UniProtKB/TrEMBL annotation:
Superkingdom: Bacteria
Region Disordered, residue ranges: 55-78
UniProt protein name: Lipoprotein
Length: 107
């Protein structure tokens, strides 16, 4: 009987300690560990298109003029650089690749 009380007390103490511990925090995974989209699902992309006048139209409709290197300044003053492969490197680290239609596809 004494053994039953000891076992019950140990189980109860374990339950109390578990209830007082720090809760598990769930949220967005760290950058680079986000899950890949499931096969067959559509991945949303944004497009930067040529405006036909030597500039580009951004996904939000803003038009920008490209400079001699193919880069341009955003309305907020940040600069978008075009790299050697022809892709655009955005200030947030995203990379927009050429789409063979004079524009770019962005993540």
């Amino acid at each position: 009987m004494k053994r039953a009380f000891i076992v019950a007390g140990a189980i109860g103490l374990t339950g109390i300690v578990a209830g007082c511990s720090q809760p598990q925090r769930f949220g967005a995974p760290p950058p680079g560990l986000a899950p890949s989209p499931a096969p067959g699902t559509t991945v949303m992309t944004k497009r930067i298109v040529s405006d036909g006048a030597g500039g580009l139209q951004l996904p939000d409709g803003t038009r920008v003029q490209t400079d001699q290197s193919g880069g341009f300044s955003l309305p907020n003053g940040a600069y978008v650089r075009r790299d050697r492969s022809g892709a655009l490197n955005l200030p947030n680290g995203s990379r927009c690749v050429p789409d063979n239609q004079g524009g770019y596809v962005c993540p």
